[in-house]
Design brief:
This protein is mostly helical. It has one domain. The chain has 8 helices and no strands. It is elongated and about 55 Å long.
Length: about 190
């Protein structure tokens, strides 16, 4: 089969099935499986994130051509770099970063930024509730401010949070909930303001 016939056939098949719907199905599978594994095993696995990245790039390239490829790659980079400081400081795992990159490759940079913000807000609220229940809120706030001041004042030594001081939360689950929330917001055209 000639290359032009292959792309024509692929484009016809994807157009017939509405490529946005196919991407949304893969998004649902990606965030659903990731949320489950993060809740159950405390990990977001490479076997789900890497295929998500490849599918995002492939589906967007086939469906929308070079603009789709560009948007997918920008989304992948945006998702991958979105919380890189949290990863560098040890508060976020590598699987969470790869999950955001996969979501960005599927849906683009705007989607991953908004959905990621919703996930951060939800996770932050849960962290506050958990810290209040464990009676470590004041201690945690002091450590956060000390860490921020140590960035501004070079002579202060940064004291990393120990495992006993941190509140472990399944951030991949909150990313998934944030993405679903944003997907519903876009799909049903919900305006908050």
């Amino acid at each position: 089969m000639a290359e032009s016939q292959y792309f024509s056939l692929t484009y016809t098949v994807l157009s017939f099935y509405n490529s946005n719907m196919i991407i949304d199905v893969f998004l649902g599978l990606l965030v659903g499986i990731s949320a489950f594994t993060d809740l159950r095993y405390g990990k977001v696995y490479n076997w789900i994130t890497f295929p998500g990245m490849v599918l995002g790039i492939g589906l967007n390239s086939i469906s929308y051509g070079l603009p789709g490829l560009r948007n997918s790659l920008i989304g992948l980079l945006t998702g991958g770099l979105f919380l890189i400081l949290g990863f560098a400081w040890g508060g976020i795992g590598g699987g969470d970063i790869k999950l955001l990159a996969a979501i960005g490759s599927l849906k683009g940079y705007s989607f991953v930024l908004w959905g990621g913000m919703y996930g951060i807000i939800l996770c932050g609220l849960m962290a506050l509730i958990t810290m209040v229940r464990q009676k470590v809120l004041i201690q945690s706030i002091k450590r956060i401010f000390y860490t921020l001041f140590s960035l501004l004042i070079p002579k202060l030594k940064v004291v990393p949070l120990g495992k006993k001081d941190s509140v472990p939360l399944p951030f991949g689950f909150f990313i998934a909930v944030g993405m679903i929330f944003h997907w519903v917001e876009l799909t049903f055209k919900i305006k908050w303001v």
